[in-house]
Design brief:
Belongs to the serine/threonine dehydratase family. This protein is an alpha/beta fold and about 325 residues long. The protein is about 45% helix and about 15% strand. It has 15 helices and ten strands. It binds pyridoxal-5'-phosphate. Pyridoxal-5'-phosphate binds next to helix 10.
Amino acid sequence: MSVSFADVEAAAGRIAGIAHRTPVLTSRTADARTGATLFFKAEPLQRAGAFKFRGACNAIAALSPEQRTRGVLAFSSGNHAQAIAYAGALQGVPTVIVMPHDAPAIKVAATRGYGAEIVPYDRYKEDREAVSRRIAEERGLSVIPPYDHPDVIAGQGTAVKELIEEVGPLDVLLVCLGGGGLLAGSCLAARALSPEVEIWGVEPEAGNDGQQSLAKGEVVRIPVPVSIADGALTTHLGQHTFPIIQREAAGIVTATDAQLVSAMRFFVERMKLVVEPTGCLAAAAAFEGAVPVKGKRVGVILSGGNVDPAALARHLAA
Ligand SMILES: *Cc1c(COP(=O)(O)O)cnc(C)c1O
């Protein structure tokens, strides 16, 4: 099943009134530093603190009444879990979350707080998809994956739809990249609403499977990367996300952990905004010149703000 801009539009209708229409922020300091006009889409201010709420809401809203009664299962390193738990709670659907045992404490606590049942697994020893499949089969739950699902991709595309509707056509769009749900959805929305836009994915330098995949022309799998960008520690793009990215993206660039910390500091100091390390990937590409932006109108997705306060303090003090 392929996914198109019509699906993004349908998702926007389904999530209206449930998901926030997040603000678009600007910064004269950031513009002066890059020579560009930057538009930051502030998904740290989305419900549950990240864009993942959009895809989760859309995927749950698209289920049949019978599937909703039985409940849904999600496997996630954090933000997708919180999004599913919260979207499920708001729509009266029970949720089970399969989470790595070493997921950030703030994310585990928040997910439980939304009323989800948590099943931990060891991400270095067990295959989360196999664990999830077994539990879902036993209990008759619908699995909603974090990125490789048409309804999830369509939901994630609503952020860029809002951004371009608000600020007009863009020359460049920078989007962080894990498994590619956000980038694929962003590609669909951006190509439809600003056809000439150049779209770039940005992933952690330590986990550049997306970059390798584009170079090779097929999905490349890598070992679990080690980076502070804990929302983008995916090992491969998806069967739904890769073809869209391959068709629409100009390319994929990377950011180092040090560059992410520097961007986090900028957002706290200058824009009074907490952006988690993964959420800084796209901004880091603009700040560090990984993608040429001078003289251009540039959309930058700040994807989420869920970082442990203690970890944030450590990063800022370093
Ligand atoms: C999940 C996530 C990403 C990566 O999204 P994909 O759809 O997997 O590419 C980026 N930033 C944050 C904050 C996330 O939670």
